[in-house]
């Protein structure tokens, strides 16, 4: 159960972080965002990042083996990175329609998924 909670919280956390890091690139397309200065954009992104931390910290706490969770620190980081890249790909396709994901992006992502397998494999 803690493993599932960890993964769900990491998905929510990474969704907020993806919008904090890259969502502002779309602000200029909206009336309210056309004249925002860099400081305003930074504060909006920090506001989103606050919600990212509300889920990231509990996810790591619940998932970390040292706190009774099922994952090692390396496994937690690997899960987080795989989720980040998955969400980033979806975000890119949905919100940045002019960006195209090529075969090299997909192969690179497949290698990351392979890395997850290798890290979790008991040798």
Automatic annotation (TrEMBL):
Keywords associated with the record: Membrane, Transmembrane, Transmembrane helix
Transmembrane annotation, as ranges: 7-24, 36-55, 76-96, 102-120
InterPro entries to which the protein is assigned, alphabetical: DUF486
Protein name (Swiss-Prot/TrEMBL): DMT family protein
Record organism: Mucilaginibacter pedocola
């Amino acid at each position: 159960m803690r493993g599932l909670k960890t993964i769900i919280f990491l998905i929510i956390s990474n969704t907020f972080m993806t919008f904090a890091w890259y969502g502002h690139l779309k602000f200029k397309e909206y009336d309210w965002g056309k004249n925002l200065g860099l400081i305003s954009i930074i504060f909006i992104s920090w506001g989103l990042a606050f919600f990212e931390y509300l889920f990231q910290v509990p996810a790591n706490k619940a998932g970390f083996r040292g706190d009774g969770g099922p994952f090692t620190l390396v496994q937690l980081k690997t899960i987080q990175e795989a989720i980040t890249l998955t969400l980033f790909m979806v975000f890119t396709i949905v919100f940045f329609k002019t960006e195209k994901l090529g075969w090299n992006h997909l192969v690179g992502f497949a290698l990351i998924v392979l890395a997850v397998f290798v890290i979790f494999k008991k040798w």
